[in-house]
Amino acid sequence: MHRYVQCTLVQIFNDQKILLGMKKRGLGVGMWNGFGGKVEAGEDLKTAAARELKEESGLEVLTSNLMEVGLLLFEFVNSGVVLEANVFRAVEYKGVVTESEEMRPCWFDIKDIPYKDMWVDDVDWFPLMFKQKLFYGFMKFTEKNEMFSQELKVLENVEEF
Ligand SMILES: COc1nc(N)nc2c1ncn2[C@H]1C[C@H](O)[C@@H](COP(=O)(O)OP(=O)(O)OP(=O)(O)O)O1
User: Which cofactor(s) does the record list (predicted)?
Assistant: First the structure.
């Protein structure tokens, strides 16, 4: 049986740079990623995305400045957990980038993304995000977090999520 968990993943852009965070604990520790986490009871997706961004990076974003860019389902077959990651991008935000208990943020040029220190799926969908394509993906992972199956497609509009 599967257990679906809604979560968010926010990508912050400044011209040709993207802000990534080095995960300091928990799922994905030791890897660079966008900012996000589980949606809490009673929260809508964008409110959860803005909260996680603030908690992990110190940056504040208005929910109206969060643009949907993709939906990714990560199934961890051993546990039966399926993370439904709702991916957003933002180019308008305020605040000071600040290291948190969970993430150490750093700006990267979009031509120099540290894919070798990121989840293996990222190398396939980051380029779609950089081309401003809307995408859907379904990836399956073993108990060692190795990806063994991947479906990834470009969508026309968010209604196809
Ligand atoms: C499996 O492949 C993944 N790829 C990418 N790029 N991102 C992933 C993958 N699996 C999970 N994620 C992202 C999605 C979310 O943004 C976070 C989930 O993080 P976490 O489990 O730390 O969520 P929190 O609510 O912050 O957790 P705490 O309970 O520790 O606060 O990872």
Answer: Mg(2+)
